[in-house]
Protein 1
Amino acid sequence: MSRIGRMPVPIPKGVEVFAEGDVVRVKGPRGELANRIPPGLTVTIEETQVRIARSSDEPRDRAFHGLMRSLVANAVQGVTKGFSRDLEIVGVGYKAEVRGKPSLWTPRRGSSRSPARTARRSDRPPRRFASCACPTRTRPRGSSTPTK
């Protein structure tokens, strides 16, 4: 068995997991996520955990076994805590800032005091359901939660 696939996925309080046909749905306080179950795998939902089992030892089934367990575990995390990524900008003169109401993400070089050193600005709005923050000028943070 796959070392990752054989580990059960714990279900925290407030999270519901449903296996409907070939789809696993995870519903929690921050939204709902769904993943398709590949052929050859079965999902068993117990009271406090989810187990993934495979029907054969074919290489394809073995590969999907660990993948499916990871997808379900990530869906459980997404509907409970959400996802976030902390970055660090390394380099002389590179900064990041978040400006405006729809929070424009602006990676830039140089400063506003010396326009000769300023490289081309790149204002990008964050994707839908994502948010950006810059606690410091060289450590931006992006986070996202699933839809409700």
Protein 2
Amino acid sequence: MLELLTLDKRENSKKFFIPTKMFQDLLSDLSVVPPWAWLCLFLVSLALTLAAYIIYSGLFASIEVSSREPCYGDLTMAYKTGRGPYKNVGAIFTETYSLFPSNRCLGIYYDDPDGGTPAADLRYAVGTILAEGDVVPDAADMQAAMDNGFKVARLPRPNFAVVAEFPFRTTLSIYLSIWRVYPKLKEYISGKGLCAYPAVEIYEKGHIYVSDVEATTFDSMLANLDFGIILA
């Protein structure tokens, strides 16, 4: 019995060392590969990874622009307003998401940065959607918003908007949407002879909805945020 066990151990040892020998041979073969080849392999792998990430984020996503009723109803929004370059709104978006990670985020941009308005005078309102339609906002959410310096207002649903949709898969999707969607919106509005502003962006899981609402709604939205119909 002891002899059989010894034989088994030897057999197992042989089976164990066979892969190790193959691995050692492989390492020996790889050691002759010049450093520049490893560098090229790394750079190619990095380039392919970045390309896949950019494509996944929406680089070639199809964009359809249409005139229709927007995808949202009356909104109860917790928001902060500001003036300045639109690139500065990221801090408010980050704060909003940290407070309400499961809510949809929303941004309203009143002025066209390509329309002659100085960057320092660009107006915006950024925040989160607390409720839609006749739904009553959660009291705890409203309190959390006010405790952190947000205002709460109810925004009317526009009757008409120029709308486009873009995939929201990564942080890069936000920048790609700005680069790809807004030129198409402007081309559509100009070609149809429409007057649609401000721009409204709604971020939800998987999608970014971008719309320029009818001009008659602009004054109502501006009044709600800056002067009245403030819920809290």
